[in-house]
Every structure is written in structure tokens, then in C-alpha cells.
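Why this split exists: single-chain examples teach little about how molecules sit against one another. For that reason, every record in the complexes split bundles all components of an assembly together and asks for one structure covering all of them. Below is a record exactly as it appears in the raw files.
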Amino acid sequence: MHDRPQATIRKAPPADTRSRVTVEPYLVVPGAASGRLRPPTGRLQALRRRYSMGPGLMMSLALHTIILVLLILGLPSLFVKPPPQEVTIAVTMITKDELTRTTKQNPHPVAQAKPVEPPPLPDVKPTPPLPDPLPPPPAPPPPKAEPTPAPPPPEPKPEPPKPEPPPPPKPEPPKPEPAPEPKPEPPKPEPPPEPKPEPKPELPPPEPKPEPKPEPPPPKPEPPKPEPKPEPPKPEPPKPEPPKPEPKPEPPKPEPPKPEPPKPEPKPEPPKPEPPKPDPPKPPPPKPEPPKQAAKADPQKQKQEDNDFEQMLKNVAKTTPQEKNDQPPKPLRQAQTASASSLPNAPLGSRVTTAEKDMIAAAVSQCWDVDAGAKGASDLRAVIQVEINPDGTVRNTTIVDTEGRSSDPVWRAFAERARRAPLIAQCNKLPIPPEKYEELKTFTFTFSPQGVL
Amino acid sequence: MMRRGLSIRLRAAPLALAAMLGLACSVPPAWAIENIDVTNAHQQPLPIALPDFPGASPQEIELGRNITSVVSADLERSGLFKPLDPKSFIQDAQSLKASPRFGDWRLINAQEVVGGGVSTQADGTLRIEFRLWDVFAGQQMTGLALTVGQSDWRRIAHIIADEIYKRTTGEEGYFDSRIVYIDESGPAERKVKRLAIMDQDGAQAKILTDGRALVLTPRFSPTSQEITYFSYARGMPRVYLFNIDTGQQEVLGEFPGMTYAPRFSPDGNKIIFSLSTNGASEIYTMDLHTRKATQITQTGAIDTSPCYSPDSKYITFNSDRGGTQQIYTMNADGSDIKRISFGSGRYATPVWSPRGDLIAFTKFEGQNFSIGVMKPDGSGERILTNGFLVEGPTWSPNGRVLMFFRQTQSDAKGHGGSTRLYSVDLTGANEREVLTAREASDPAWSPLLPR
């Protein structure tokens, strides 16, 4: 009993196969009556008709699908090229900047960048070099900072840049912002470099560098030439570069180039092909970048290979459209340079260092005697204005009554003793650095005894 | 008219602004000048040149020399001045009187120079004038002309020293003052103690009592004309008053017990002292006009050595009410008693400084005695000197120097020990012996003598 139904069920499948064609229902009905299975010719024709119509539809469908596929696939294919460009640009910019930062002033920038900037400004003001920077006033102080970054390799160099920005006292504070500005005005940055050299002359170490720059042009040292060419005043930045390689073998080179090259190199480099390729020094990151950009600026790549600076310049040139990316690093460099100049014993040129002040105070304190038993001696305080001769000897001293205590006999006695101290023979010649005379030809001593009763 | 005036003002405004800006630019702003802090001071005496005051006659020259010598000694003993060797002087005193050559004085590192002269007037009195010059400023700092009898030249010298001290330090001097003390003589086991008085430099000493009765703890009145002290003059220990001018002495009231440790109030109208009865000592005051006594403390402990603050508002004293001898302060009426000494050892003989800023004391710790100072609130305790026995501090009139007596240790047989007067400044660095003819103890410094 159970088998039959199963058997019938088994047979059903073949019929089903026919029915798939959608013909079976018809066949079954007539065929079932006769007990035979035979295809009805009329319907076959109808089926044929239908089949003949199917290919057309299929074709149309296929064509449509093909069109659709083509449309779909074709659109993306059109945009295939852009992706590589994006990749190259982004990668190159980021990697180089980072590399430069790390190699140049990784430690300094982080801690000093922000806090240091403010101090340098005041320093700059006092600096006599200001007049020099003025000529180049190109105004954009921030850009100057950028070119200066080149000096970063040797710390002293960064310092000179600081003095320069000071000439325009206001621009300095904005240093962080300048980053964006510099790019828009590549030429401007160049002028700033000039001022930098000027301040350097003031400082013993920096002076030598500026001088070499003028010289290099004649001999045409490879590194110097490219830099000076961009801008006569700029020659300075190149100078810093040569020294950099010496102190800092590889890292310094890549770093300095970035800041400076961006502006000057882009233009000069293309015209100047430099055969030598000391690229090896460059870290791996730089190499990958050039290949990406090769399509656009292959000649530049060759030039860049010669010097790290050149490579940096190329990168900058390529990325110029993407100023945004480049700018961020610039501000960092500026901050770094500023911080460098604010370093303790740095040749700020304008400011008197704490160590120098301590030496002067120690010299005069030897002759400063107080009446320790006076009532309130520990609270007494006197400001004495001092006039200094160029040889460091004290010419005159004056009591400055800042607290309106001239009628207090104890204070007056205290102030008079303080006023005498710098005039006493043993303490009359103060250890004033000759280069700081302009700032210290008139200054004040504030005498306030500690450790008295 | 109004518009015209306004237009003129508007036109003038820019000019005024420009002028102000120009002026501002021409003068470097104070903030633009470098400043260097100097905090490491030294405590060295000030070099001062004191050429002998010239005179026309040999007597005047001698007086001039003596006066200069006293002035120089006063200043040198203060520890604040260093009189220069007259042999180094380039300019002579006679030309100095006319006008100092400051360059010459700078060459010998003198910071101040004193010029003057002595002349005898028609009435026989002396006219002494002097000028104090600032060598580096090239200016006169002060100058005086004094007329005095020839026998009072020492006092004139002290007055000149005070003027120099005052002008140089800004504080009153203390040279024109006197010391009352106990003159001691005889063997250790039977010492004779007499009341004596002298100048602060030890000169012109004078014995006031005959020594038949023991005298202790003398104190000057604010006018320096009277002395109060403790004596067994009549067999009973009592507080006495002594008039320096008349030589009269009187007992300060009649009390059932011993009165001791007397001291004048700052205004001189009261005497504050201790009265010992039934094993306890309480602090009393007596009005010198009404002779009425007022009890200040009532604790049953030993409260003694009372001393007023300069403004008479407070009293400091020592007491064992806390179990050990310590220093306390209280209001003048005896309220708000506060202990102010908390160091190790015992504290005694508190004396309020004439400046009001410190309280001097004697401290006993172990086998050592010391003299120190602390602030009225008990802070800032500093020991100025110590020794086998140092005791009885008294303030100079300006509160800058303490005088006390020091007793050296005698040998096994009780021989060799002596008692002398010493002075020490507030820094503790300038301790000097005050020379007296014999042994001396219990000094008391007078105020500046009235002029």
C-alpha cells in the first residue's frame, strides 16, 4: 500500500520536468484521457512562437544588461586614474614632514614650541640687528621663520631667526598662525631669511655663516647655489644647510630642506638639473614619494636626488596645491626656531641672559653692605638706576624711589648704601658683555637683602 | 564762537597727541630697561674718615682731637662703622673744613667723611661744628653747630656720633646715654656691691651708694633722672627710688613682704614690681603720684621680672605657673595672659625692646646660660651670646644693642672668677666688653639724655 503511492510519486518528477516548460498541464489533460503522451502539434507551434519571441527578449535583455554593465563598469573605469594621484600626494607630504620634524628638532619643538615663542619676541626688540632686518622688511615675519628652520640643525642658528622676527614684534606672536601665510607668499619667506643672517652676524657663531653665503655663490657650491638663486637674500638659508650636514649627518639634511625648499627651490630647481645624487642619506620615506610624483615632475626628482633639500623642495612644489598639509609643519618649525633662540645661553643677541645678570649681580653684591640690625631690614628694597660706560665701568647711579619712601630715614639710608655699591672701586667695573652694552648702558639694580634679621 | 573754539581744540588735539607720543618715544619706558636683582648682601662696617677737628689754639686742637677720638670710638664700637686710619688721609682737616676733595677720599675707600672744627667763643664756651659728607654722592648728609661748656666736650662728642649714626642708618643713635650698674669690689665671699653710673662707653663712672647695703637690679626712669633698685638698706629687702641730681633715696611703699624686680613704666608715672608673700610672688604696680599699689596677677605662682611694652599696653614677665620658668605676656591690666617661650630650658628676665619688636631674655639650659631675643609672640627666638653665666640684658635706647653682665668660672678654690659688662648687637656678631674700673653687674641702659 505504501509502495504504490511512493511509485506514483516517483513518476511524477518526469512530468514535472515537462511542465516546467509550462506545457505539461495542457498535455496532461488531453493525454490523460487517452492514456498516452504525445505532444500536441498546435501547441508546439505556439510554444515555438513563444520560443522565437524569447530569444529576442533575451537578446534585448542581454543587450540592456550589457549596456547597464558597461555603464556601471565604465563610470568607475573613467575615475580610475585619480586615485593614484591622491595616494601619492598624501603620502609624500605627510611622511616628509614627519621625517623632517623628527630629524630636526623632535625634542625641542614639542616642549619649547609654544612657550618659547613669546620670549623670543622681547628678545628681538632689543636686538640692534633690527635695522638690518628692516631693509628686507618683506614684512612677512612668519615666512622668515620658515626659511630659518633650515638653521635648526645647529641650535644656534634657530636663535638668530628669532631675533629677526622680533623686528616686527607683532608678527612673532602669530607665529603659530603664520604657517598658512607663508605658503601663500613664497617670496615673502625669502626676505625673512635675509634678516636672519643679519642677526647672526651679531652673534659670533651666526656671523660666520652669513659671510660664507656670499662667498659660496662665486664658487657655486652645489647646495648653496640652489638656495641663493631662489633669492639673493635667501642665500642665507642655504648656508645654514651646509653646516647642518656636518653636525647632523642624515637627519638634519632632510629636515632643513623641507622648510626652505618649499618656497625657493620649486622655482630654481627645475631650471637647474643637478647630476649628483646624494639621496642615499634620505630615509626610505622620501624615496617612495618621488616615484609617485614622478609622473608630474620627473625632472624635479632628479634634481631633488642631488640634495635632500632639493627633494624637500620638490615635494613642496608638488604639494603646493595642498598647501594645507605643508603649512602645519611650517608653523612647527617656526616655533622650534623661536624656542631655540630662547634657550638659556643661546646667543639671543638682544636679551641679557640670566647667567649674565647673575654675574653682574654677584660683582656688585661684593660691595653691598647692609645694616642687618635695622628694623624691617628684610623688607627693605631699593631700585638704583645705573649708567654704564662702554668699558663696563659704572658712570653714575641714581636712587629710584618706586615706593614713595624717600621720607623714611631707614629706607633712605638703605638706598644710599645700595647706590654706593656699584661706585665702589672694587665693584665699579661690571662684567657686561660688549655686545650687550646697548641694552645695559642704562639699567636698574633692585637691592633686596635676603637672610637678614 | 563755540564752534571756532571746538575746531581749534580739534586741531590742537593731534598736535598734542603727537607731542606726547614724541615725548614718550624720546624717553625710554621704565619697563624697557633691564633690571638686575641683587639679594646677596654683606654686613661690613661702613668705612668713614674722621680727621681731627682743627682748632686755632693748642687747647682747641686738643679738644678737637679728643672729640674726634670719642666720636670715632663710639662709631667703631657700634660695629656699623669702620673709622679709617688717619695716616691714610690725603686731604688735611683744615682744607676739609672748607670743602672736601671727594676724589681723595674715594682713593682711600672712604664712603663718608666728617669735617669740622672747634672754636672758643667770647664767653668761654666751645663752638663745635661738623659736617658729614657722602663721598660718592659728593653731598653733605648732615651738619651741626654745637655750643657747650668746655667740661662737657665728651657729651658733645656723643651727640655728634649720634647724629652721624642717625643719618647713616636712619635710626636714632644711643651714644649720648648712660649706664647704671652694680659696682662690685672685694673678695668673692664678701663682695661689696654699690650703685654706680657711667656713660655708655664706660667713661665718667661715678659711685652712687656707699656699699653698706646690698643693692641689685637698678633701673633708669624715662627721664634718666631717677633710678629704682632693690636694696637691703634698712634690713628689709625693699624697692627704692634714687634721685641722681639730689642723691636722695626713698623706699617705695610699705608692704608685708619683700618687694623686688622694680622697673619704671614708659611714661615714668608708675613702677611695676614683684611682691613676695607666703611663698608666692605677684606683680604689682604703684602710681608714683598717689602711691597707690595695684595687684596685677593673682595665681599663687612666682610671677616676677615684669616689664612694660614701649606703648604701655602690655606687660611681659616670667612665671613658673606652668611648672617651669617661662616668659609670658599679658595686657597691662593683667588680662589675656599668654605664654610665649616654648623652647627647651628655662627663661627669665624678659625685657621689651624700646622699638617694641623684640623681647630680650636670659635662658638657662643645662649648665649653660645664654641671652637671646624673640618676637613678642614668641617666634623668631635667636640666641645672641652664651657662657658660664650671662644674665641681665638691657636694651640700648634705640633697641639695637643689648648690654649684660658675664661672669667667668672660678677655680676649684673659688678664685679667678670675675663679672664684667658686655654689649652685643642684634646680629650677635659685635660683642664688646664695656670697660669698668672694677667688676660690674646688673647694667641698666638709660634713654637718650635730654638735650
